[in-house]
Amino acid sequence: MAVHARRLCHIAFHVPAGQPLTQDLQRLFGFQPLAVREAEGWRQLALRSGDAVFLVNEGAGPREPLYGLDPRHAVPSATNLCFDVADAGAAARALVARGCSVPVPPVSVKDTQGTATYAVVSSPAGNLSLTLLERAGFRGPFLPGFQPMASAASPGWVSHVDHLTLACTPGSSPTLMRWFYDCLDFRHLPLSPGEDPEMGLEVTAGSGRGGLKLTALQTPPGSAVPTLVLAETLPGDSSGQDQVEQFLARHRGPGLQHVGLYTPNIVEASEGVAVAGGRLLAPPEAYYQQPGKERQILAAGHEPSVLARQGILLDGDEGKFLLQVFTKSLFPEDTFFLELIQRQGATGFGQGNIRALWQSVQEQAARDREA
């Protein structure tokens, strides 16, 4: 029987001591400190914006960091997804029965605010592990073992995590889809009418130029788990690596490529990020000159010049629109990045925007080579 994940609790990162991820999340994206733990060589800082919580594990120690697993990965990385479950012990036993590896068996942590029990499960998605967390009796702001931190008011740019995208090796999406189906009760979410789960949505970049294959998964109704997107490269000739190939090479394997953060006002959020010094990926120069693009933007209630200035992509029709803007990587290795996304009735991911992102990465790589 598959484990029922009720909600996403947090996303954990592992970075070396001194890496500025925590400062960048606060200064550039409006995240605020929530709780901290410093012990045994680790500094673990939880940050929040709306319902989106990031846990940054900085340093290294002789034992595993609390609520996670040290992946001992060669580069900084988003390494763990923590899900709320009804019974962590029963969930761990169910996954062991399915042949899953549980490197951290169920353990309970207690402080004056209550108790939490968790187990950590290895996944087939590169260095990504999953924490199964039971904390119904805990009354604190984050988790037992952490000290609450005072913080300023958040600017409110981000309300929650919209989706999680895994960069996969070519041909691996069906295997990963079945694992998440069997183990965590995820189901195929069609991104186009009549979509074959094994084939996913193929977004081609042009004749013979390859493109991307996307397979979306979601948990049953009633849970608060973001959509999981499996992304892999389609074969084809190209002048350079696309964003998935680039991630696999520089991250040294599959993993969590980006997190889509939902914003109620993408114009305000992207402007705030840019003013704070955040680096946003510039769309292709011709994106806003496409036939019908200005009319489409106006139909969605936005000003074309404003979206162009901020690099915001817009796709959709029939009164349902999707707006997205992508950051450049948060790490020097040019791997993990963030996405700000606003939905005006749209539920998918916009094939036109996917093509634009593909081309943006190609153009940025060309500029980097020239520099």
UniProtKB/TrEMBL annotation:
Segments forming domain VOC: 7-135, 160-328
GO terms assigned for molecular function: 4-hydroxyphenylpyruvate dioxygenase activity; metal ion binding
Protein name: 4-hydroxyphenylpyruvate dioxygenase
InterPro entries, alphabetized: 4OHPhenylPyrv_dOase, 4OHPhenylPyrv_dOase_C, 4OHPhenylPyrv_dOase_N, Glyas_Bleomycin-R_OHBP_Dase, VOC_core
Family of this protein: Belongs to the 4HPPD family.
Co-factor requirement: Fe cation
Cofactor annotation remark: Binds 1 Fe cation per subunit.
Alphabetic keyword roster: Dioxygenase, Iron, Metal-binding, Oxidoreductase, Repeat
Taxonomic lineage: Eukaryota, Metazoa, Chordata, Craniata, Vertebrata
BP terms from Gene Ontology: aromatic amino acid metabolic process
